[in-house]
Amino acid sequence: MIRAYKFLMRPTVGQAIALGEMLRDHCSLHNGALQERRDAYRHVSKTSIRYEMQSAQLKEIREFDPERQGRWSFSSQQATLRRLKKAFDAFFRRVKSGDTPGYPRFRGVNWFDTVDFPKDGDGCRWNSTPHDPVTRVRFQGVGHVKVHQHRAVAGRVKTVSVKREGRKWFVVLTAEQDQPEPLPKTGSVVGIDLGIANYLADSNGDFVRNPRHGRRNAHRLEAAQQALSKFPRVRRDKRTANHRRAVEKVAKLHGKVRRQRLDHAHKTALALVREHDTIAHEDLKIRNMVRTAAPKPDPDQPGAFLPNGAAAKTGLNRSISDAGWGVFLTILASKAESAGREVIAVDPRNTSRQCPECGHTSGDNRTTQAEFHCTACGHHAHADTVGATNVLRAGLVHREAALA
User: Fold this and answer.
1) Which positions ≥6 away from 33 have C-beta within 8 Å?
2) Listed residue (142, 166, 140) closest to 244, CA to CA
3) N or C: which end of the chain has fewer CB within 10 A?
4) Low-confidence ranges of the chain (pLDDT < 50)
5) 312-333: per-residue pLDDT in tens?
6) H helical segments located in 276-353
């Protein structure tokens, strides 16, 4: 299996400048390749430029501009071109499937924050000084950079990436390792229901409180963004030091909220994996759930619109995004795979409307957000617990059907 590791780097001032120049030059390569594809399609009879053609031009580009492109790793530049290829592949796939396509965009220097090295030892070397008590990673054109390695790396390192987050630099490794020993069996199965009032409710009647990290930091973010909005829009090279500090403050606050969400998701998923052999959850289409409310034209007044609950929907969308369900489910699946646990995704339809006692399904069964009262048999319980129970039953049925 492949596992990723992320460590903080501690570059010197000169190394930080060199890392920034490496990102800038790879960003320039990405934008130049994108421009070539656009020009070829628009002006040369809709000719398509492929990755193989652009990769073959790298040697000439490096010879033409040795100061900016020639000093960096050839394989990392190929990886940057492959990133552009994947963006175009995703664009055409969405066009073909009828989804809303997003055409690959040019990247600003602050938007391009990652450089990939496809192979350890080709333009980079992890732990390049093994006899030194300080862990270091070597990058071509940068040198040996100190790394704060807070845990051991198991397995053979395959790829290395440089990532910038604000003023901090990180190295991201992927290592190939043997499948770890599964956790001991507990004999427990559970269904979970994700929500907003409660972050998570399980079929055993337990709840996990919703931390609402975004809402708790909203006033700080609002103040920082208002301070940033007072600066006029100018070119990057003409921005003042105060403007840069305002940008960094907004980015720092967003980064803090993101780390808090990740920490909570990791801890919650780890507790579930340790306690249960099988975990069933709703197969939520989160992207569809956070779409904005569609406008309702007024048939009696052309150009006017009827109330569509857009304000309430916006608040709901913000709460769903703040909960971070998608990140949590991804982490849960990853931890379950490593621990030898089973995760089952089930259809979420009517899980909160069906009575777990008699099977009666009706929208009237859920009287409030938190209360479930069956109109047929009178069963009364917490609505989230009922949803989790139905999710577990659907998951067990799905598993039995798959084994049959």
Assistant:
1) 54, 80, 81, 84
2) 166
3) C
4) none
5) 888 888 999 999 999 999 999 9
6) 286-289, 310-323, 325-339
